[in-house]
Amino acid sequence: MMNRMSKPLGRSLALCAVLAMPLLLTGCEIGGKDATQWGPRGAAMEGVVNPRLMSAPGVPPESAYPLESRDGPRARDTYQNLQVLGDISADEFNLLMLNITAWVAPPEQGCNYCHNPENMASDEIYQKVVARKMLQMTRTINTQWEGHVKATGVTCYTCHRGKGIPAYYWTNAPARPNGILGNNMGQNMPSPTVAYASLPHAPFETLLVGNNPIRVGSKGIHPTPANTTSIQATEATYGLMMHMSSSLGVNCTFCHNTQNFGKWSREQRVGAWYGIRMVRQINDGYITPLKGVFPAHRLGPTGDPFKVNCQTCHQGVNKPLGGVPMLADSPSLRDPNVAVAGAGTSVLAAAVSTPGAVRAVAVAMPTETADRIADAAGAAADQARESVAATR
Ligand code: HEC
Ligand code: HEC
Ligand code: HEC
Ligand code: HEC
């Protein structure tokens, strides 16, 4: 009575189960993978990607209207409380306000996410104070870290993607008490930060702030007094490497000659080196100092603000948003004073820099959503284009 199954049936079921095991263990991802040969031929240094698991690069929203010129009265002559953007033209300032609203603010809040509509100059809403620091941070990224972000550049959208809080960030993990279970040093806790490897789950706390070295390779085959790197530091380094690989959607060979991890033969590794320094400056120079500005419920479990790692911008793609140039209509996020290429004298430029009209709309209706204002601006630009076409 205990075993009703016929023996052959039981055996084939068991066989099926055994055969199915590898499928389960590989997450059932059958089907072809794409491989690119990166190293010298025959060295098996390949980049392997699963096209079905690749992240879509995403598409940044279009600028509310094109920026035609950077001439005209300066923003500081029009507005009262500008600490960062005073130097740019009032028109460019207005366009930037429209665009940052689309990049960062929830649509139902629009300008009011950062502003008290009764008094646009007031700093009473903490988001405005944060945004000011973010403006400085974004300019620093685009000017001082061109070695990393190249001509592509970043805007608020690169991290925010239309949301007030970026989807990917990290905070310090609360220390685990040294109880009867012992301190596992963050080991064996499956975490997406290190691509679910059994590596310390919080490598960022030591490696994406401050300036600890990330060099753990031994220079010789024997232990020497020069080899002082601890196993913990080595594990944290590998944890970070797993994070960097999964954030960019690549494997180790994208940056390394895997026959010698210490070599600098691939330019991607150099770019990544700058990336690590850039992220440290973002965190230490801009985000951590905002600690006192955020309300308590917006801080991590140990009271630190949400910080940036590679995933914050890259989101699974080797060039964020597929490498679309981000700064075409927001040159002031790189250099406050460089003229827009090709702009200046055209009738079109003159027509569009009437968005004194746009400014009037924006200031007279601060409670309107960005969309309404953007529509007005877009219509003004369209009209200008039509009138230019008519005169040619
Ligand atoms: C993500 C936050 C944010 C959003 C959303 C935002 N602003 Fe601003 N706004 C700022 C910051 C920051 C400043 C101050 C910049 C500086 O100090 O240089 C500012 C300043 C201003 C000023 C100047 C006020 C003065 O007299 O000093 C105006 C006008 C303004 N914004 C209009 C708008 C309009 C209109 C919208 C919606 C289309 C908008 N802003 C959306 C952050 C924001
Ligand atoms: C490198 C990535 C990055 C870029 C670029 C960036 N931000 Fe942020 N921003 C963050 C992170 C991370 C936080 C979350 C900080 C926290 O919550 O402690 C944040 C928070 C904010 C907040 C606070 C949101 C809230 O409701 O608490 C505002 C407002 C903001 N950013 C505006 C901007 C603006 C405007 C720009 C462009 C000028 C910008 N950010 C560019 C990463 C970025
Ligand atoms: C996006 C580029 C990139 C990827 C992908 C990457 N690394 Fe690295 N790796 C670096 C950089 C840059 C450094 C040096 C960091 C520094 O010095 O600040 C480094 C350092 C190392 C070191 C220390 C080398 C030394 O000189 O001591 C090891 C080991 C290492 N990586 C292993 C890996 C492994 C294993 C993988 C795949 C899981 C990987 N890396 C993926 C860029 C990368
Ligand atoms: C502030 C946003 C931002 C952050 C944070 C960031 N990157 Fe980047 N990264 C970019 C941009 C933009 C590019 C595209 C540059 C270009 O067009 O070549 C890029 C390109 C790269 C490339 C070259 C890719 C290629 O196909 O040649 C590597 C490698 C890279 N990043 C590694 C990293 C690593 C590792 C980190 C984390 C330590 C990181 N990045 C963090 C914005 C960022």
Structure description:
The chain has 392 residues and is an all-alpha fold. Among the domains are: 86-164 and 327-391, Photosynthetic Reaction Center, subunit C, domain 2 (Orthogonal Bundle), CATH 1.10.468; 168-172 and 191-212 and 229-314, Photosynthetic Reaction Center, subunit C, domain 2, CATH 1.10.468. Helices cover 39% and strands 2% of the residues. It is built from 13 helices and 2 strands, in the order αββαααααααααααα. The protein has helices at 7-25, 75-78, 90-104, 126-144, 146-149, 156-160, 204-207, 231-248, 267-287, 310-314, 347-352, 356-364, 370-391, and strands at 34-37, 46-49. A two-stranded antiparallel ribbon has the order 1-2. The longest helix is centred in the last third of the chain and has 22 residues, at 370-391. The protein is globular, with a radius of gyration of 26 Å. Bound molecules: heme C (4 copies).
Features:
13 helices, 39% helix, two-stranded antiparallel sheet, Photosynthetic Reaction Center, subunit C, domain 2, binds heme C, mainly alpha
Helix and strand topology:
Blueprint: H1 7-25, E1 34-37, E2 46-49, H2 75-78, H3 90-104, H4 126-144, H5 146-149, H6 156-160, H7 204-207, H8 231-248, H9 267-287, H10 310-314, H11 347-352, H12 356-364, H13 370-391
In short:
The chain has 392 residues and is mainly alpha-helical. It has helices spanning 7-25, 75-78, 90-104, 126-144, 146-149, 156-160, 204-207, 231-248, 267-287, 310-314, 347-352, 356-364, 370-391, and strands at residues 34-37, 46-49. The protein is built from 13 helices and two strands.
